[in-house]
Design goal:
With 136 residues, this protein is α+β, with helices and mostly antiparallel strands. 35% of the residues lie in helices and 20% in strands. It has two domains: 3-82, Arc Repressor Mutant, subunit A (Orthogonal Bundle); 91-130. A hairpin with a 2-residue loop joins strand 2 and strand 3 (77-82). Helix 3 crosses helix 4 (53-65).
């Protein structure tokens, strides 16, 4: 997803445009991978003295609800990134060091469906964690 797409979604859903929101989205737009609320706070505090975690989390939650951001949990902490924009079903490898991702085109549910005969599976999430070649 591009920054302009994210801002358009925000506007189309009736949310107010603010420079702070654009700066949050710009941060994720330039980052290549998942980042934490602390990473975002460090970035924004240079421009917005006294910005709070409450402001950060409120916006992260909003952007997640609008599917502008994707989230995952690494070592007990939520990490966020701009939605990857892939139209087709896929999963991700996530580097635990730098947060970069790589799309996984195959889906394990294709193999697991035989174990769930009679069950109605409504959704699933599959991620692989490790170190990318640059961090390994």
């Amino acid at each position: 997803m591009q920054l302009n797409q994210a801002l358009t979604i925000l506007k189309d859903e009736g949310y107010k445009y603010t420079e702070k929101r654009e700066d949050i989205l710009s941060f994720f737009n330039k980052e290549d991978g998942y980042r934490t609320a602390s990473d975002l706070l460090s970035f924004l505090s240079k421009k917005y003295e006294g910005i709070s975690y409450d402001t950060i989390y409120r916006n992260l939650h909003l952007f997640s609800e609008l599917n502008i951001l994707e989230s995952t949990e690494l070592d007990g902490e939520k990490h966020f990134r701009l939605a990857c924009g892939h139209e087709e079903h896929h999963h991700h490898f996530i580097c635990k060091s730098c947060g970069k991702t790589k799309a996984i085109k195959s889906c394990p549910m294709n193999l697991l469906n035989i174990d769930f005969n009679g069950y109605l599976i409504e959704n699933h999430k599959f991620e692989i964690y490790g170190l990318c070649p640059n961090c390994n």
